[in-house]
UniProtKB/TrEMBL annotation, chain A:
Pfam family, one: GATase_2
Highest classification ranks of the organism: Bacteria, Pseudomonadati, Thermodesulfobacteriota, Desulfarculia, Desulfarculales
Catalytic residues as annotated in Swiss-Prot or TrEMBL: 18 (for gatase activity)
Domain Glutamine amidotransferase type-2: from-to ranges: 18-365
Protein name: Glutamine amidotransferase type-2 domain-containing protein
Keywords: Membrane, Transmembrane, Transmembrane helix
Bilayer-crossing regions: 290-314
TrEMBL record, chain B:
Coiled coil spans: none
Name assigned to this protein: Glutamate synthase alpha subunit C-terminal domain-containing protein
Domain of life: Bacteria
Organism: Dethiosulfatarculus sandiegensis
Pfam families, per the entry: GXGXG
Location of the Glutamate synthase alpha subunit C-terminal domain: 30-183
GO MF terms, alphabetically ordered: oxidoreductase activity
């Protein structure tokens, strides 16, 4: 936990806002971070300057097979303590200060440092596994829970989270994101409702290459937190959104559910809708609801989940937060407001409002080219398995297909 | 008069509009609109605003008689607590269209999102009307207290409305062209065919709708429509009185 940079702003509670935006090239073309900054800045008034952040995929191509561990640190002492853990667990291929530039609106900041690492073979032996990700998750949890003044805010490969206290456009400029190029970007403009605005509490929340930006509230946080504790996830960030990142990691990476099915477990149809389904789907959804009851997300939310293979946008079951999507060529756009899409896309080919509980998914068309042999194999291992479930229950209303509204 | 909204903050855009109107402008064109909020707030009768682009949330909120034409899509909460006037959207609109609307007319050419017409209300000569050319998502007319919601379903969707239609409804009427199943409406809603008087209202509204949106009129039939009405003006009056 960061101590010194935790209480920058007094506690307060206010009405809800928050804005999210994501843009992805499914062809894997890399483009500057300036676009996502412009898009999220379009929704400036959805936030209040108490948190902004951006997740970027494909930004470390030279280091794409190593984990990029981003750290926030209170002081040199906590940096040394964290470094000793990292060097115990990992082979370090490089480390540096995360480049920033002085920004008039970012007045106080922690030490920001990044390490490019692999998990040491002897650590894997100790864990009795060949799964580096398992060890990395454990290391991240350990640092975030135990090190006073140290906090890992990004731990994936060829991706990074950049976040802090401020408006997202200012945070983006502060981190010089216009100088990076990535194929997929998500951003968040925070309007904290239940917890303080602190550097670690800004979105995106991240574990491995999962990132989550979120508008709304996860009312089921307590249940989700206790459910996740069974699997070794420790919620340390004092905020609800964290559970979404861990649930994706659990359901997709560890339990091998396809993305659509994982979303269905997190935002399932109501029992009244399940009752009207045919036998086969009834059995499937009832099963999912029973097995993954602890993963059900309640409350109003619109979330954007990023991972190396793409981007997932989805809403709560009654659509209590806005989400609109658009496509043009190989580009997919998802945002809280349509204006944020038009800001960076001239004449989208299709525009549609997301349907409650039905994910909008963008996927890399040729993962091998972008992620490399190893990265593509990891992605495949993570997203194969079970057949995809048609997640749209027959409940009337508009078709859920893309371009349902245009 | 043309106002270029490209990169202009919403407060400035609205200031420019109100300055122009205060200076006597009757016709305004806004171009390159990309999500600026509150456009048309409180504008009085006799003013016409044409918007090219995507106006932001709360378009025409508290509007007091002006007319707005949107040549594009709209975002959320169009016509929030609108008092009088008319908004015509030549595209689709997001969630909570006509939120707490108190008067005037709101036409959307395409589909609308969730909770369209939530808590619309009527009083004396104020009578809000929302007409939707496409279909609507769940919670259409939630807590509706007055006025009229019409779903023309001109794309002939098998199911033009979502679930939980009219949940908490205790006033006003919803007319839907197409099939609505029992399970798609709230407990407070009844089904009935349209009366002749109601049908003539819907027919006239359709003529106005097609004219404003430049659509080709086609013959609609009374029997294609279903009336969803509130079974009680005070469904929960006895909830806490046993």
């Amino acid at each position: 936990m960061l101590k010194r940079h935790k209480k920058l702003i007094p506690d307060f509670k206010d009405i809800s806002g928050c804005g999210i935006s994501g843009v992805m090239s499914e062809a894997g073309e890399r483009f500057s971070g300036e676009f996502i900054i412009r898009s999220i800045a379009n929704m400036h008034d959805r936030g209040n300057g108490l948190g902004g952040g951006i997740a970027a995929y494909g930004v470390y191509p030279q280091m794409r097979d190593h984990y990029a561990v981003h750290l926030m640190l209170d002081d040199i002492k906590s940096k040394k303590e964290t470094e000793s853990i990292i060097s115990n667990w990992c082979t370090v291929f490089g480390d540096e200060s995360i480049p920033t530039k002085p920004h008039p609106k970012i007045q106080t900041r922690p030490i920001l440092h990044r390490y490019f690492v692999d998990i040491k073979p002897e650590v894997l032996n100790r864990f009795n596994t060949d799964d580096e990700d398992e060890a990395m998750v454990d290391m991240v949890m350990r640092i975030n829970q135990n090190v006073t003044g140290g906090f890992v805010f990004s731990s994936g490969r060829n991706m990074g989270v950049f976040k802090g206290v401020g408006y997202p456009e200012d945070i983006g400029e502060f981190f010089r994101l216009d100088e990076y190029e990535g194929y997929s970007w998500t951003a968040h403009n925070r309007f904290p409702t239940n917890t303080t605005g602190w550097w670690g509490g800004a979105h995106p929340f991240s574990l491995l290459d999962w990132t989550v930006v979120h508008n709304g509230e996860i009312s089921s946080y307590g249940i989700n937190k206790r459910y996740l504790a069974n699997f070794g996830y420790k919620c340390t960030l004092q905020t609800d959104t964290e559970v979404v990142a861990y649930l994706f990691d659990l359901l997709v990476r560890r339990h091998d559910l396809p993305l659509e099915t994982a979303c269905l477990a997190m935002a399932p149809p109501f029992w009244s809708q399940v009752d009207r389904m045919d036998k086969k789907r009834h059995k499937l959804i009832s099963g999912l609801r029973m097995v993954y009851g602890g993963a059900l997300l309640n409350g109003p939310f619109a979330v954007l989940v990023g991972f190396s293979g793409g981007m997932v946008g989805f809403n709560d079951r009654t659509k209590l937060r806005p989400m609109v999507a658009a496509r043009k060529g190989d580009m997919l756009y998802i945002a809280s407001e349509e204006g944020a899409i038009h800001e960076i896309c001239d004449g989208p080919e299709t525009v549609w409002h997301a349907t409650a509980g039905v994910p909008v998914i963008g996927r890399l068309k040729d993962p091998k080219r972008i992620l490399g042999e190893k990265g593509a194999a990891r992605l495949e291992a993570m997203t194969k398995m079970m057949p995809v479930v048609d997640s749209q229950p027959s409940q009337g209303g508009l078709p859920a297909s893309e371009g349902g509204l245009s | 008069m043309i106002i270029d909204a490209q990169g202009v903050y919403y407060k400035k855009v609205n200031e420019l509009i109100h300055q122009a109107v205060d200076g006597g402008a009757k016709y305004l064109e806004l171009v390159n609109v990309k999500g600026q909020r509150y456009i048309g707030t409180g504008l009085p009768e006799g003013v016409e605003l044409v918007i090219k682009g995507v106006p932001g949330n709360d378009l025409a909120c508290f509007m007091n008689g002006a007319r707005i034409n949107v040549l594009g899509n709209a975002q959320d909460a169009v016509g929030n607590t609108m008092n009088q006037g008319k908004v015509v959207i030549h595209g689709v609109a997001g969630d909570i269209v006509g939120y707490a609307m108190r008067g005037g007319k709101l036409f959307v050419k395409g589909d609308v999102g969730y909770r369209a017409g939530i808590h619309m209300k009527a009083f004396h000569d104020r009578f809000p009307v929302v007409a939707i050319g496409g279909g609507a998502q769940d919670y259409l007319g939630e807590y509706m207290a007055g006025g009229v919601l019409v779903v023309f379903n001109l794309n002939d969707l098998t199911s033009p409305v979502g679930s939980f239609t009219g949940t908490g409804m205790h006033g006003g009427m919803i007319y839907v062209r197409g099939k609505v199943e029992d399970y798609q409406v709230g407990a407070e809603v009844g089904f009935a065919p349209l009366s002749l008087e109601e049908w003539s209202f819907v027919e006239k509204l359709y003529q106005e709708f097609t004219k404003d949106l430049g659509l080709k009129e086609r013959p609609l039939k009374k029997q294609e429509f279903t009336k969803l009405y509130p079974k009680s003006a005070r469904p929960y009056g006895n909830l806490y009185a046993y």
